[in-house]
Amino acid sequence: MVQNEYLSVSKTLVSSGQTFEFGFFSTNNTKNLYLGIWYKSITPVVAVWVANRNHPLTDSAGGFTIADDGNIVVLDGSKNVIWSSYLSRSVVNPVVQLLESGNLVLKDGLSGDAASYIWQSFDYPTNTLLPGMKFGWDLKTGLNRYLVSWKDVNDPSIGDYSYGVELAGLPQFVLRNGSVKQFRFGVWNGVHYSGIQNLKQDEIFSYTVVINTDEVYGTFVHKGSDPSLIIRELVNEWGKLQRFIWDKQRMKWNDMSVLPRDQCDSYNYCGVNGICNIAISPPCECLRGFTPISQQQWSIYNWTSGCVRETSLECGSDIFVPIQGLKLPDMIKFWVNKSMSLEECNLECMKNCSCTAYSNSDIREGGSGCILWFDDLFDFRRFSDAGDQQLFIRLASSEGETTSDNAEKKKRQLLIKSPPRSWFINALLLFGRLLNHLEN
């Protein structure tokens, strides 16, 4: 589509491989019209991108065109602009094209490569992530690509839930309801997110995270021999992150995954310094060296108050105890140094009396970098296996002595419960002699 062409509400553009279609659609037979992109061969319509999601077209006389300044615009029947791409510069020879990837691009007609894209829908996602889309930040321009749910299943306007990459400290993917955190993937440690166990990358799906001085983003791609596979991710109207694959034989969408999965994925479910463990009932426990702030509240299954230290810290003589199999705490009060060793991290944390935990920031090649956490710790989850990353928790030195005493007590109890074999055999022999004596 070139400048001065006009796309009426009854006309569409189709990608070269017939996978995607671009034009106006309505939801649930309403009069509202939205300019968007959907799968051409799948019914009912599944929109993967919507332009005028907050400003529907309400009359059939409207349409879509490329304005004189090169912007792509939605016009109502009176030729008023109700949505625009809002380019900061004019375009001499603008061309709009719908790519087979589902990306709508505005480019200079004289060039065909991706570097010539002046605007693209992949940079402004709505509620859906498609293969090849970058999900995150362009640090050079400040562009932030994130998902926002529909208002409801029939209303694509801005909904309550958003899902994006937070840059504080180390990148974290976070789902929010308004401004309130609902779920986070955990800290990126160079290999995976600490809050997701067994995130499978199978023969049809591959997920990649890119972190450098120019960009911080995630993306997923197809892999394998079938390029026709249709996969999409979205944040839905109820605050769930879903991944679907299209089943061509049964003509239906199959669930690949859904997050949050259970109550332990709910943000900070067990309060400060508390750990959520889905394998036990009730699911909340305190970090080692901590006890519930309100035992009364915990007894009625209200864990929001969290946990507090059993023994006060002594600063210079404190110890650090390693724990594995935990989702690393949220980056609330923290400090990051990506060049430190774990030993240097320990010394740095020991010097600051408010430092409560530390860990490597990157677990590759034996581990490197340093994260320090200060004061209370938020949003722990325990996993069934030990995992590949240690978190070191600060405890009073007496807590270490208590641990040693407890270990010694258990050892003594074991000796009492399991006497030496020779003693047991002698006792049996003595009992046998006694029986023989009584019979005689």
TrEMBL record:
Q: Which Pfam families match?
A: B_lectin (PF01453), PAN_2 (PF08276), S_locus_glycop (PF00954)
Q: Where is the Bulb-type lectin domain?
A: 1-119
Supply the alphabetized keyword list: Disulfide bond, Signal
Q: Which GO terms describe its biological process?
A: recognition of pollen
Q: Does the keyword Disulfide bond apply?
A: yes
Record's superkingdom? Eukaryota
The record's listing under CDD domains reads: B_lectin, EGF_CA, PAN_AP_plant
Residue ranges of coiled coil: none
Apple domain location: 315-396
Q: What does this protein do?
A: Involved in sporophytic self-incompatibility system (the inability of flowering plants to achieve self-fertilization).
Q: Can you say what this protein is called?
A: S-locus glycoprotein
Q: Which organism is it from?
A: Papaver atlanticum
